[in-house]
Amino acid sequence: MNNLIYSYINYYFLIINFIFGNDRCIKCSKLCINSLCKTCKLNILNKSKYLKIDETNFNHFNRVYFDEVYSVDTYTDLFFLIKEYKFNNKIYLSYFLSHLLNNLIKKYSIDFDLIINIPNHDFLQYTLYLALNLSKIYKKPILNFISILNKKQKQHFIENKDDRIKNVKNKYILKKIIKTNNLNKNKIDILLLDDIIKTGATINEVSKLIKENIKTISKIKVISLAKA
Q1: Is residue 20 part of a domain?
Q2: Do the Cβ atoms of 189 and 210 come closer than 8 Å?
Q3: Considering its fold, how many domains does the chain have in total?
């Protein structure tokens, strides 16, 4: 997506938020702009756990296709923020959420060559906005080459672990053939971006698709906003 279009979307929702009088902090209800006051922003930044997820969390897979997994915090602690961003269309929160992801990357010195975001069913591609912000910060390209099949059920409606794994089976397809020759590297590290990780079914299915179609992959490093 063009960065200019992304900016227009942010401004549109900011204006709508202001017109309808919702310009209060989603955490403390203080009058502010961007739905988060400075005090609450600082508290969230300082109190976020910035987790490295142990591989034993994914022992239910016959094969794991990703290499490392990190999350800003638990879903319980970040639910209020993710809810406003994804389900109440406060797209402008992507800037602050990207700040949290940037802190996560810096804490663990996560090195990568390009960014791939996991798409969602909605018109507004929430992970893509986060990826665009990180791309600006790190001057790394985005490969927005994965599509989602809308006939599949939304993953967050499914609780059972086995059902979640079945639901993502062949759920994602490639938009086009990808060439990575312009990176001038024999092996590349992917930063795979998702919003919420629960069983890991989505990130494993997408990682499999990536490794089957990009032969120069060294590692897939997954980052997310929250671990459920």
Answers
A1: no
A2: no
A3: 1
